[in-house]
Amino acid sequence: MNTQSAEIPKLGRLGFGGAGIGNLYRAIPDGEALATVLAAWDAGIRYFDTAPHYGLGLSEQRLGAVLRDKPRNEFVISTKVGRVLEPSPDGGRDPEGFDVPADKRRVWDFSESGIRRSLDDSLERLGLDHVDIAYLHDADVHDLQLGISQGLSVLEKLRSEGVVKAIGVGLNSAEAALECVEAADLDLVMLAGRYTLLEQPSVPLLDRCVERRTGVVNVGVFNSGLLARPEVPDDAHYNYDRAPRALVERARALAAVCRDFGVELPTAALQFPLRHPAVVNVTVGASAPEQVVENAARMEESAPEELWAALEAVPRD
């Protein structure tokens, strides 16, 4: 059972994800990025997530430029460990999806020295004296067992020292996240794209998190854009690629049910995960202020209880 549950920071229903302001897929000007963070603050969002991976530190720099001027006790911020940034002489552009110069390279490091250095570097970029939450990032991409045996024990140590208030993992795999929950005393799991309105899967991880009092921060609720618009286009994306025709048709069926109840598809997609008792927050990325404003408004819209049963009845084949 989680012994740290009383210390988990309050995240609110909606959080701000920092990948977009790290120039994910496209470069955005500094002014637009900072305006996007300010829009989140003005919308009442008080949980902000970032990572060194996002734009080779650019996301942390931009997020910190806004938050360092806000009262520190009024917001919660998380970043991630597992990769450290090293200078790179290669030049060119970042090959991992962020439109930034490749003047640094990511180096996997789950050691205590690597994780402490990663946090120190993040604090320097953020301009803050501490972060509230540290997640071990993408351990399943690199070496899950090493992440569990080495990285998670380091995070437990840092929490016991008071360096961070809460610890967790950020993963795309529910199965890998479940292994981590069983292996360590985690406060949070950041789960990307595995529990969404589109699939409504049975996820044993969620029930186990309830038992262990480990909160789930659900991200990727739009399935890379497939559920992000009221009308689903032919060229919609799923899991960062062109969506298969069958999934486009299923998303359109879900959208039609939503319309019958006077609710738009993205609104249902945002609110659906919070119906599970394990899910404590839905965090959504944005790269423009209007996206933040729209998501915040959708989270506050009312949806009739009958909608959810009707959506669950939509055939999956």
Keywords:
single chain, 317 residues, alpha/beta, TIM Barrel, eight-stranded parallel β-barrel, two-stranded antiparallel ribbon, 11 helices, 38% helix, 17% strand, globular, disordered N terminus
Explained architecture:
The chain is of the alpha/beta class. It is 38% helix and 17% strand. It has eleven helices and twelve strands. The chain starts with 13 loop residues before the first strand and ends in a 5-residue tail after the last helix. 46% of the residues are buried. The N terminus is likely disordered.
What fold name goes in the CATH topology slot? TIM Barrel
Helix content, binned percent: 25-40%
Order of helices and strands: EHEHEEEHEHHEHEHEEEHHEHH
The CATH architecture designation is Alpha-Beta Barrel
How many helices does DSSP assign?
Answer: 11
Shape: globular
- Work out the radius of gyration: 19 Å
Total domain modules = 1
Our measurement of the CA-to-CA distance between the termini, rounded to an integer number of angstroms, reads: 38 Å
Structural class: alpha/beta
What is the strand arrangement across the widest sheet?
1-2-3-6-7-8-9-12
Global mean pLDDT: 94
CATH superfamily: NADP-dependent oxidoreductase domain
Largest sheet: 8 strands, parallel, barrel
User: Would you state the CATH class?
Assistant: Alpha Beta
